[in-house]
């Protein structure tokens, strides 16, 4: 009889410990970026001036792990990007153009596909890519990091893009969209929730 009671105590104790372990492993829900967002032209930080007439909308459709971003630049152009927050990877247009001062950028570069891997980092959605291009005989390599972060009041969405030059030391590349080695360029765009 005592051995049955001892076994029951052990079973109950192990269930309790197992349940406590499950409680610790439960993760905080990820922020819901879904909604329609309007670019706040007064809060873009990248050294460029945006006309106040800019009417860029960003529609986010989040159905984990798929997160779709539809950017409409005032009816001028629309771009659809799809990311998977489980890290499986995705291919999207790079949206970047590189050139030297002696040549105009090739518009086809904007549509070139780049492979990204996306995961949640706490409350930020982070996509990372390595982009290689040959421009005027030079191979350029950049790490691209894009982050989306929702404000605590859920009324603004900040999109941060970092371009980190991975080219060999001593190579200096100049021109729009290009940077010196080891000097990251960061842009931030703030979108306000539309009601």
Provide an overview of this structure.
This protein has 195 residues and is mainly beta. The protein has a single domain, classed as Calycin beta-barrel core domain (Lipocalin, Beta Barrel). Helices cover 12% and strands 44% of the residues. The protein has one helix at residues 2-25; strands at 35-39, 56-63, 66-73, 78-84, 90-93, 113-121, 124-135, 138-150, 156-165, 185-193. A 10-stranded antiparallel sheet has the order 4-3-2-1-10-9-8-7-6-5, with no helix packed on it. Strand 3 (66-73) and strand 4 form a beta hairpin. It is globular and about 75 Å long. The chain starts with a helix and ends with a strand.
Classified in CATH, the superfamily is Calycin beta-barrel core domain
Mean pLDDT: 77
CATH class category label: Mainly Beta
Q: Helix/strand-derived class?
A: mainly beta
Please mark out the parts with pLDDT under 50 across 5 or more consecutive residues, or reply none. 176-180
Instruction: Enter the CATH topology name.
Output: Lipocalin
Number of helices: 1
Helix content, binned percent: 10-25%
Rg from alpha-carbon coordinates: 23 Å
Instruction: Give helix and strand order, one letter per element, not per position.
Output: HEEEEEEEEEE
Query: How many β-strands, per DSSP?
Result: 10
């Amino acid at each position: 009889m005592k051995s049955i009671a001892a076994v029951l105590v052990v079973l109950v104790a192990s269930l309790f410990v197992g349940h406590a372990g499950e409680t610790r492993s439960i993760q905080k829900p990820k922020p819901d970026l879904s909604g329609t967002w309007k670019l706040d032209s007064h809060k873009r930080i990248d050294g460029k001036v945006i006309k106040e007439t800019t009417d860029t909308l960003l529609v986010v459709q989040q159905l984990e792990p798929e997160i779709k971003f539809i950017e409409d630049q005032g009816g001028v152009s629309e771009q659809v990007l799809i990311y998977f927050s489980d890290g499986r990877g995705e291919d999207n247009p790079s949206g970047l153009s590189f050139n030297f001062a002696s040549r105009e950028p090739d518009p086809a570069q904007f549509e070139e596909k780049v492979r990204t891997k996306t995961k949640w980092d706490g409350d930020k959605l982070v996509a990372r890519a390595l982009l290689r291009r040959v421009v005027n005989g030079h191979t350029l390599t950049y790490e691209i990091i894009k982050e989306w972060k929702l404000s605590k009041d859920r009324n603004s969405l900040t999109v941060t893009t970092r371009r980190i030059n991975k080219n060999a030391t001593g190579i200096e590349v100049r021109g729009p969209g290009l940077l010196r080695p080891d000097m990251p360029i960061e842009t931030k765009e703030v979108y306000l929730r539309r009601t």
